[in-house]
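Example 3.2
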Amino acid sequence: QVQLVESGGGSVQSGGSLRLSCAVFGYTYSNYCMAWFRQAPEKGREGVASIHSDGSTTYADSVKGRFTISQDNAKNTLYLQMNSLKPEDTAMYYCAVNNNAGLRGLYYLKNPDQMDYWGAGTSVTISS
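Structure, written as C-alpha coordinates:
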Protein backbone atom coordinates (compact mmCIF):
# COMPACT_ATOMS: atom_id res chain seq x y z
CA GLN A 1 0.00 0.00 0.00
CA VAL A 2 1.27 3.47 -0.93
CA GLN A 3 0.08 6.68 0.71
CA LEU A 4 0.61 10.08 -0.87
CA VAL A 5 0.31 13.36 1.01
CA GLU A 6 0.44 16.66 -0.87
CA SER A 7 1.32 20.05 0.59
CA GLY A 8 2.41 23.49 -0.52
CA GLY A 9 -0.75 24.80 -2.12
CA GLY A 10 -2.01 28.30 -1.48
CA SER A 11 -3.09 31.57 -3.02
CA VAL A 12 -0.70 33.77 -4.99
CA GLN A 13 -1.00 36.51 -7.56
CA SER A 14 -0.51 35.99 -11.25
CA GLY A 15 3.19 35.72 -12.07
CA GLY A 16 4.04 34.25 -8.70
CA SER A 17 5.49 30.88 -7.78
CA LEU A 18 4.60 27.91 -5.62
CA ARG A 19 6.29 24.63 -4.89
CA LEU A 20 4.11 21.63 -4.25
CA SER A 21 5.38 18.62 -2.36
CA CYS A 22 4.10 15.05 -2.26
CA ALA A 23 5.39 12.82 0.52
CA VAL A 24 5.34 9.14 -0.39
CA PHE A 25 4.77 6.51 2.27
CA GLY A 26 5.03 2.83 1.48
CA TYR A 27 6.89 0.83 -1.11
CA THR A 28 7.28 1.91 -4.71
CA TYR A 29 8.59 -0.55 -7.24
CA SER A 30 11.67 0.05 -9.32
CA ASN A 31 9.65 0.82 -12.46
CA TYR A 32 7.21 3.52 -11.45
CA CYS A 33 5.73 6.67 -12.84
CA MET A 34 4.80 9.52 -10.55
CA ALA A 35 2.77 12.44 -11.78
CA TRP A 36 0.93 15.61 -10.89
CA PHE A 37 -2.63 16.12 -12.05
CA ARG A 38 -4.98 19.01 -11.54
CA GLN A 39 -8.69 19.54 -11.62
CA ALA A 40 -10.36 22.91 -11.90
CA PRO A 41 -13.98 23.39 -10.86
CA GLU A 42 -16.39 21.78 -13.33
CA LYS A 43 -13.52 20.43 -15.44
CA GLY A 44 -11.98 17.01 -15.88
CA ARG A 45 -8.72 15.86 -14.34
CA GLU A 46 -5.73 17.07 -16.36
CA GLY A 47 -2.26 15.60 -16.39
CA VAL A 48 0.36 18.25 -15.63
CA ALA A 49 3.75 16.55 -15.35
CA SER A 50 5.21 13.11 -14.82
CA ILE A 51 8.53 11.62 -13.85
CA HIS A 52 9.56 8.06 -14.49
CA SER A 53 11.80 5.95 -12.28
CA ASP A 54 14.56 6.46 -14.87
CA GLY A 55 14.33 10.21 -14.35
CA SER A 56 12.64 11.06 -17.63
CA THR A 57 10.00 13.78 -17.44
CA THR A 58 6.94 14.74 -19.45
CA TYR A 59 4.91 17.94 -19.33
CA ALA A 60 1.57 19.12 -20.56
CA ASP A 61 1.93 21.79 -23.23
CA SER A 62 0.11 24.27 -21.00
CA VAL A 63 2.86 24.18 -18.36
CA LYS A 64 6.03 23.59 -20.38
CA GLY A 65 8.72 26.08 -19.51
CA ARG A 66 6.89 27.15 -16.34
CA PHE A 67 6.59 24.00 -14.21
CA THR A 68 9.33 21.58 -13.18
CA ILE A 69 8.75 18.14 -11.71
CA SER A 70 11.45 16.56 -9.59
CA GLN A 71 11.93 13.96 -6.92
CA ASP A 72 14.15 13.47 -3.91
CA ASN A 73 14.48 9.74 -3.46
CA ALA A 74 16.27 10.11 -0.13
CA LYS A 75 13.26 11.99 1.23
CA ASN A 76 10.67 9.97 -0.69
CA THR A 77 9.20 13.22 -1.90
CA LEU A 78 7.92 14.41 -5.25
CA TYR A 79 7.93 18.12 -6.09
CA LEU A 80 6.29 20.44 -8.56
CA GLN A 81 7.92 23.85 -8.90
CA MET A 82 5.42 26.21 -10.49
CA ASN A 83 6.61 29.57 -11.83
CA SER A 84 4.93 32.32 -13.83
CA LEU A 85 1.59 31.20 -12.51
CA LYS A 86 -1.58 32.20 -14.33
CA PRO A 87 -5.20 32.36 -13.21
CA GLU A 88 -5.92 29.34 -15.41
CA ASP A 89 -3.56 27.30 -13.23
CA THR A 90 -6.12 27.55 -10.44
CA ALA A 91 -7.13 24.01 -9.50
CA MET A 92 -6.84 21.23 -6.98
CA TYR A 93 -3.50 19.53 -7.56
CA TYR A 94 -3.03 15.83 -6.96
CA CYS A 95 -0.01 13.57 -7.02
CA ALA A 96 -0.37 10.00 -8.13
CA VAL A 97 1.76 6.95 -8.83
CA ASN A 98 1.61 3.98 -11.15
CA ASN A 99 3.65 1.29 -9.49
CA ASN A 100 4.35 -0.81 -12.58
CA ALA A 101 4.82 1.75 -15.30
CA GLY A 102 5.53 -0.06 -18.53
CA LEU A 103 4.61 2.92 -20.67
CA ARG A 104 5.96 6.42 -20.96
CA GLY A 105 4.83 9.43 -18.99
CA LEU A 106 2.62 10.99 -21.65
CA TYR A 107 0.36 7.93 -21.61
CA TYR A 108 -0.28 8.31 -17.90
CA LEU A 109 -0.86 12.05 -18.14
CA LYS A 110 -3.57 11.37 -20.69
CA ASN A 111 -5.00 8.37 -18.81
CA PRO A 112 -5.26 9.26 -15.11
CA ASP A 113 -7.39 6.15 -14.53
CA GLN A 114 -4.20 4.13 -14.98
CA MET A 115 -2.63 5.55 -11.82
CA ASP A 116 -2.67 3.18 -8.86
CA TYR A 117 -2.59 5.55 -5.89
CA TRP A 118 -3.67 9.15 -5.34
CA GLY A 119 -3.21 11.80 -2.72
CA ALA A 120 -6.06 13.88 -1.36
CA GLY A 121 -4.90 17.01 -3.18
CA THR A 122 -3.76 20.52 -2.37
CA SER A 123 -5.53 23.66 -3.54
CA VAL A 124 -3.88 26.30 -5.71
CA THR A 125 -5.54 29.65 -6.40
CA ILE A 126 -4.03 32.25 -8.69
CA SER A 127 -5.52 35.72 -8.67
CA SER A 128 -5.15 38.18 -11.54
